Amino acid sequence: MSQTSKRISYAELRPHLRDGMSILFGGFMGVGTPDGIVNEILDAGITRLTVIGNDTATPETGIGRLIAARRVSKVIASHIGTNPETGRQMIAGEIEVELVPQGTLAERVRCGGSGLGGVLTPTGVGTVVEEGKTKLTFDGVEYLVERPIRADLAILQAHCADEVGNLVYQRAARNFNPIMALAADFVVAEADEIVAPGAIDPDLVMTPGVLVHALILAGAR
Amino acid sequence: MDAKTLIACRVAQEMQDGDIVNLGIGLPTLVPDYLPEGVQITLQSENGFLGMGPLNGETLPNLVNAGGKPCGMVPGTAFFDSALSFCIIRGGHVDVTVLGGLQVDQEGNLANWMVPGKMVPGMGGAMDLVTGAKNVILAMEHATKDGGAKILKRCTLPLTAAKKVSTIVTELAVFRFIDGKLVLTEIAPGVSLDEIRARTEAEFVVSPECSEMRLPRWVVQ
User: Fold this and answer.
1) Spatial CA neighbour of A106 closest among B120, B47, B52, B21
2) What pLDDT was estimated at residue A51?
């Protein structure tokens, strides 16, 4: 394994940001969303974004800040109810919202990063979620075929990283982070702490460094 | 005792010692306060852990419930990512899910995630929970604020899942789905069968063993 550090500055993230790009984000109600990277995206002024993650938090937290700043044209999420701005822009026809059951969203992104063509799930059978989807029946159980999701960029929040990109998350901030790490062309993690290779017990690594292209130390300018 | 407390109290009597339980927001979160003596349950939080507990003064970073609010954890807690959280949920590893409802019908269909044109928060984890939990308990007030029926012949709102509800607990009655039929099994103290019929649109069978609602003695007195 290359021992070259993956550490970059917030400014060095800038070339990876562009209008119209799709972004997978870790976080659940903003917990586990990298705030410094969201700041950098806001400062970069990029717009027409597609954001994909569990929920749109609030207008003041998490990815919700990009929505409040009107940088987003499409949201794929399981829940938008805590951010009135998402609902308002949806009703006004300013952004497109695709609602996906939470477990299905996790599996679709996992498929996108795992070389799989999709997943069969019983969730959503008999509801509006099944509209337009292929249904298959095995052993008497109906399943929906749910297709993979990938994006241009994934933004993660980790508690600790080592220089080669191995990540450890803290408590409930793990949520979607390890899944989003799988499925983007460029994956950047903001870590509270960055340590030397070997300083994290290999048995405790939650996301292996092979999935992570760049690391930013939280708050470092 | 108000309706919500009575419902939570009755739902708590459904819990078996050792159950893995996922509680929806609102009324269901009251259930742990009324567990019968000797019954201990483990709470699954969809944002990625098993072992959620009450907040005992101190808040820890990144320890939040599925509403994003600080919570506690019990000894033996395990954290995991959202894909594993929903493997646990869909995979039948959760014994009981307790959630609220806007409508339920005599087929066991549940609607609790949107009101077209009015409220479109998203389904979050509800569709996966109702699809995958072994026992789906609907804990809700019997009628709408205007007195309209919520237990219907057929749901008119978009479904959360088809034919998955096991038990309905309201402040008036307990119903169970037995062999595909809606069966009235318990009536709250001081409530008549006629009153239940008047406030229930669904067709239901009265169980030959129908009894007074099973509540702890301190509630009935």
Assistant:
1) B47
2) 98
Question: B121 Cβ partners below 8 Å, 6+ apart?
Answer: A79, A80, A81, A82, A87, B113, B114
What are the structure tokens assigned to A27, written together?
């976080």
Answer whether residue B71 is part of any domain. no
Tokens of residue B86, six digits: 């929903």
Which position has the token pair 């009894």?
A: B211
Q: Cα–Cα distance between B167 and B184 in angstroms, integer? A: 10
Rounded Cα–Cα distance for residues A82 and A94 (Å): 18
Whether B66 is in a domain gets the answer: no
pLDDT at B91 over 90: yes
Give me the number of domains chain B comprises. Answer: 1
Residue A96's pLDDT is: 98
pLDDT digits (tens, 9 = 90+) for B173-194: 999 999 999 999 999 999 999 9
pLDDT at B85 exceeding the cut of 80: yes
Under 8 Å between Cβ of A113 and B146? no
Between chains, do A102 and B49 touch, taking CB under 8 Å as contact?
A: no
Which tokens is B44 given?
């699954």
Task: Please work out, in degrees rounded to the nearest 5, the angle formed at the alpha carbon of residue B121 by the alpha carbons of B44 and B88.
Answer: 20
Convert the pLDDT of each residue in A122-169 to its tens digit: 999 999 999 999 999 999 999 999 999 999 999 999 999 999 999 999
Structure tokens at B111: 């609607």
What's the pLDDT score for residue B181? 97
Q: Where are the beta strands (DSSP E) in chain B?
A: 20-23, 42-45, 49-53, 72-79, 96-99, 103-105, 110-111, 135-139, 151-152, 167-169, 173-178, 181-187, 205-212
Interface confidence, given as ipTM, is: 0.97
Count CB atoms within 10 A of the CB of residue B209.
8
Question: Which among A29, A31, A127 is the nearest to B158, CB-wise?
Answer: A127
DSSP structure class, residue B35: P
Interface touch A179/B82, C-beta < 8 Å: yes
Task: Say if B29 is an interface residue toward chain A (CB within 8 Å).
Answer: no
Chain A residue with CA closest to B125: the answer is A102
pLDDT at B186: 98
Higher pLDDT, A118 or A1: A118
Asked if the structure places residue B64 within a domain, the reply is no
The SS3 of residue B141 is: coil
Nearest CA in chain B to A181: B81
Sign of CA dihedral B158, B131, A74, A89: positive
**What is the set of domains in chain A, with CATH numbers?**
10-118+146-217 (3.40.1080.10)
